[in-house]
Amino acid sequence: MSAESSISRSWEDIVFENRNKAYGAYFLRKTYAKHVVIAALLAFFTIGFVLAFPKIAEFFKSEEVVEKPKLRTTVSLEQPPPINPDQPPPPNIPPPPTKTIIKFLPPKVTEKDVVEEEKMPTIEEIKTHETGSENVEGTTDVVFDEPVQEVVKNEDDTNKVFTFVEQSAEPVGGLEAFYKWVGKTIRYPAAARRMGLEGKVFVKFVIEPTGAISNVEVVKGFNGECDKEAVRVLSIAPKWKPGKQSGRAVRQAYTLPLTFKLSE
User: Fold this and answer.
1) What span, in angstroms and rounded, lies between the C-alpha atoms of 53 and 112?
2) Count of structural domains within the chain
3) String of b and e for 50-82 (b: at least 16 CB within 10 Å)?
4) Comparison of pLDDT for 117 and 216, the residue scoring more
5) Cα distance between residue 200 and residue 182, in whole Å
6) Confidence tier at 261 by pLDDT (50, 70, 90)
7) CATH no. for residue 223?
8) Residue 253 within a domain
9) Which residue range(s) make up the domain with 238?
10) Quick check: 218 and 202 in contact, CB under 8 A?
11) Closest C-alpha to 171, from 243, 246, 83, 239
12) Closest CA relative to residue 182, chosen from 124, 256, 242
């Protein structure tokens, strides 16, 4: 093969030399460059048409002439209808009543002294004399009123139980000494000890004017045997200092918790 013949031949002929050119691949290779050029031209044309479409549409758009409606300026000057003499006149409607408004006048300033109709008493006179609607002159005699004895109501109900008093009742020696006495006197019930029961019993009682404890009852408990033991101990407790109201000893209600706790 000479150099001139190889130059004149296309690259498709060189690639498909000694091959089956009727298969279809040779034809596609042969027309590929032409198809690319056609596709590029179509793309450029389409893009240009899309970009230039508003201008083209504006150029070919026909201007619509809108006719404005003509206004009639003709004025009819006809004569009014004749007046009917038999037609009654319109009713005479009276105007609404007017309200009388009194103009506010500013107070007049005068140089004359204003004379008071009645002289007001001073604070010192009110403190030393009684005040009334009119002046009453008394006699020169001095009258002493009979002394009024203040009646003090004695409370005859000696059985009244007070919850709060001026001077509250307290154990002799204080609550700490009273709790020590309770700890030495109280007996832990055997059944509660075996079951390992622990808790507090709130006991309410009344401290009499003599200091003795009465009306012992359980307000809140946790075990029947422990509740009975708490009532028993407080029933034999020593006397307290009674509570006092208005300087006299009275009955006072008191609530005390007793703790049942097993020693480790």
Assistant:
1) 102
2) 2
3) eeeeeeeeeeeeeeeeeeeeeeeeeeeeeeeee
4) 216
5) 14
6) confident
7) 3.30.1150.10
8) yes
9) 161-260
10) yes
11) 239
12) 256
The residue to which tokens 């003509």 are assigned = 70
* CB neighbour list of residue 172: distance below 8 Å, 6 or more residues apart: 238, 239, 240, 241
This prediction has a pTM of 0.41
CA distance 169 to 254: 8
Sign of CA dihedral 249, 255, 256, 258: positive
Q: 49-63, 179-193, 208-222, 248-262: which range is least confident on average?
A: 49-63
Taking the C-alpha atoms of residue 121 and residue 208, their distance in angstroms, rounded to an integer, is: 59
- Residue pair 235/228 in contact by the 8 Å Cβ criterion: no
Q: At 124, is the secondary structure helix, strand, or coil?
A: helix
Angle at 191 between CA 188 and CA 193, to 5 degrees: 50
